[in-house]
Design goal:
Length: 81
């Protein structure tokens, strides 16, 4: 793993980091699978996200099974809390 990958995943996967923004995801995009698996703690949180009222597009991110980051997901960051 390159240094940027490790820094990226460390930032995204840090449970004390309560704010992940668009630049973080742009930098982490090549490692989307690892980043979202880590964010979801290797669990599928889709039901919880649906119960919270997240739009279907954003529920895709809750699965922890994301293989590609696309700009369409950036609107979902407002639900990250």
């Amino acid at each position: 793993m390159s240094g940027i990958c490790c820094r990226c995943l460390r930032n995204v996967c840090d449970p004390s980091n309560r704010y992940i923004n668009e630049p973080d995801m742009i930098v982490c995009a090549p490692w989307a699978t690892e980043a979202f698996s880590c964010l979801a703690n290797d669990m599928d949180h889709s039901d919880c996200c649906r119960e919270r009222g997240l739009p279907p597009l954003c529920v895709e991110l809750c699965s922890g099974n994301v293989t590609k980051i696309d700009y369409k997901y950036f609107r979902c960051f407002r639900y990250d809390n």
